[in-house]
Amino acid sequence: MRKQSFLRLIIFLFSAQATFVIYNNPNIYAADVTDVVTVSKDMRAGYEEMRKGNLDRAIDIFNKVISMDAKNSNAYAGLGNTYFQKGESDKAIELFNKVISLDAENPRAYIGLGNIYFQKGESDKAIEFFNKAISLDAENTRAYIGLGYSYSQKGETDKVIELFNKVISMDANSSPAYVGLGNAYFQKGETDKAIESFNKAISLDAKNAHAYTGLGNSYSQKDETGKAIKSFNKAISLDAKNAHAYTGLGNVYFQKGKAGKAIKLFNKAISLDAKNANAYYRLGEIYLSLEKENSALEQCKILDGLDKDLAKKLYEQIKP
Predict the structure, then answer these.
(1) What's the CA gap between 89 and 94, in Å, rounded?
(2) What does pTM read for this prediction?
(3) What percent of the chain lies above the pLDDT cut of 70?
(4) Where are the beta strands (DSSP E) in 65-149?
(5) CA dihedral for 247, 252, 257, 261, sign (positive or negative)
(6) At a CB cut-off of 8 Å and minimum separation 6, what does 80 contact?
(7) Are the C-beta atoms of residues 224 and 253 closer than 8 Å to each other?
(8) What are the two backbone dihedrals, phi and then psi, of residue 148, each rounded to the nearest 5 degrees?
(9) What is the pLDDT of residues 213-251, one digit of tens each?
(10) Could you give the maximum distance between any two Cα atoms of the chain, in Å?
(11) Is 134 helix (H, G, I), strand (E, B) or coil?
(12) Rounded (5°) CA angle 234-246-294
C-alpha cells in the first residue's frame, strides 16, 4: 500500500514539474532568434548570452539594439524574455505589451505572455495567448509547445499528446516536444512510452537536462532505482541548478530508506528554488517517518504559503 501511495505521489509531483520545463529553459528562447529572417549580430549575441545564463549582459545588448532602433519589436521581445528568465514577470509583461503596441502581429509577444501566465498557474489565460500566437503563425512550434504544457497544467493529457505530436509532425527534431510527450505519458501512467519519449529527446539533444529528469522519474516509478539515480545525476551534471532533479533524487533515496541522504537532497532543491513545494512536502513526510512531528509541522506551515492543497495533504498525515 505504501509503495502504491509513493508511486501516486511521484506522478503528482512530476505533473507539477512540467511547469519548470517550459519557463525555466533558456534554450527555448534562444531558439527564437534562429527563425527571424534578418536579425542583427547584436540580436543573435543577446539570445546567446541569455542561453548561457548571462542575463544582465543580454539585457545590455537588447537595450543597445533598442537605442539604435526604438521601434525594433523583436529587441523588446528579447528583453521581455530575458526579464522573464530573471523572474521579473511584471517587467516582462510591460515589455511584451510594448512589442504589441509596435507590432500587434508579432507572435513572440503572445508566446512571452503565454509563458508568464503559464508560470503563474493561469492556464486558461496562457492558452488564450498561445492560440493567438498560432493564429498569427500557424507553424510556430514554440507556441504549440507552450499550448501543450498549458493543457498539461489542466490535466488534459490526451490533448497534450495531440499537441506535442503536432509539434513533432512539424519538426521531428524537437527535443522539447518529446520531453512534453514524455511528461504526458508519465501522467497517464504509461511509463514505458514515457521512457521511449525521453530517450528520443536525449537522442536529439544529449544535453537536455529535463529529459534526464523525466527519465529519472520514470525509472523511479518502475522501481529501477539504479537507472533513476544515474538519470538524475546526469541531469544535475548538465544543469547544477535543476531543483527538480534534486527533488527526484531525494525521492529515490527516501524510497530506499536513506532518510538522511534524502533530507540533504531536498534541502539542496529548496536552496535552488525556495518555492519548491514538492521538496517541502517530502521533507515533511520524512520528518513524520522519523517521528519528528514538530519538524513536519514546520514544513506544513511553509507549504501553506506555497500550495494549500499539499499543505492540507501533509497535515492530514500529521494529524489524522
Answers:
(1) 9
(2) 0.84
(3) 88
(4) none
(5) negative
(6) 92, 93, 95, 96, 98, 99, 109, 112
(7) no
(8) -60, -45
(9) 999 999 999 999 999 999 999 999 999 999 999 999 999
(10) 65
(11) helix
(12) 165
b/e per residue 304-317 (b: at least 16 CB within 10 A): eeebeebbebbbee
**8 A C-beta contact, residue 91 and residue 56:** no
Q: What's the pLDDT tens digit per position in 252-285?
A: 999 899 999 999 999 999 999 998 999 999 999 9
- Positive or negative torsion for Cα 159, 162, 168, 169: negative
User: What does each C-alpha distance from 56 to 25, 47, 174, 227, 233 come to in angstroms?
Assistant: 17, 12, 28, 38, 29
What does the pLDDT average to over 44-73? 93
* Side chain identity, residue 273: D
pLDDT confidence of 39, banded at 50, 70, 90? low
Task: Compute the distance between CA of residue 23 and CA of residue 18 in angstroms, rounded to an integer.
Answer: 9
Cβ atoms of 110 and 92 closer than 8 Å: no
Other C-beta atoms lying within 10 Å of the C-beta of residue 54:
15
